[in-house]
Batch of 3 targets.
Target 1
Amino acid sequence: MESADKLISVYKACGQPEAEIVKGRLNVENIPAVLKYESLGSVYGLTIDGLGQVEVLVPLKYAEQAREILDHDTDLKPDCPDATEPEQNSEL
């Protein structure tokens, strides 16, 4: 996988619905995004110990643009206690 094709985490959501909204927001800006999550959390609806967390990943070449868009969108701020801002070097 070339470095430009690496996926970078730009957002951690509290659950699948929030992550889908963030993914849609990025798609509107022509930024491809995929979701990464533990299947156990979505199957059983668990939201404790990070099981409900969903990471939004984008290709490295879109990461900076995606972060800028999400930083300026005040409606897209995680409000669950387990969600944190993604690490700057979080890669897949």
Target 2
Amino acid sequence: MSSNVNTAGENATIDLAAKIFIELICRNVVVTDNAATIKSNPESLAKISLKLAEVFQRVTGEVRKSSAPKNQAFEVQSTDLADWGTPKT
């Protein structure tokens, strides 16, 4: 099962890298009347895209972990809810 999780994670990274690559290529193409020229090396753009996607996936996972509930052992008792609205004297 862990290999399926790795494959899914790799696929998500590759999909994100492809989107980044397309965006970088679009921003580096110069189109004239009868030609199109890429200002940057496409191989370098592909490498940058993969690195950016990997970092983005890693940081996203870290942020999700840090924002996860911290008090998972907390249990709400029915008595807690019953006394909630009554004023303390």
Target 3
Amino acid sequence: MQRVEASGVAAPRLIEPMRDQHLNDGAMAHFWCKIYSATPTSCEWFHNNRTLSSSDKYRIANNPTDGDYALMVFNVRPADAGVYKCVVSNPGGEVTCIAHLHIECKYILRCMKLNIIIRETFVEKSANAGHFPYSS
């Protein structure tokens, strides 16, 4: 049964929820949910409770007529992991849909490789100069 507020308008209703995502570092996340509303809606997207807007990083593609609400997150990084939330409201109320983004981080491995390259370069340059920083 759909709840009807004092305004006489039914609150939006979740038809299909978003799904959690497990992605590799650098991939694109695509969150999508389907929400029905008999009246016009407004929509807000959040990442870890911070409001999102369309940018080079985020693309918001909502189509309230069809009930489709979508968010794309480009080039995901570890900082993009967390809770994504879509809140759709009308005069009758609101519905909230939540999904989690988990990042499989290859970034740490890249940092470790970079650290090894820097260390090898440092040792090689020191050896050429006649200094061995790790010898006694």
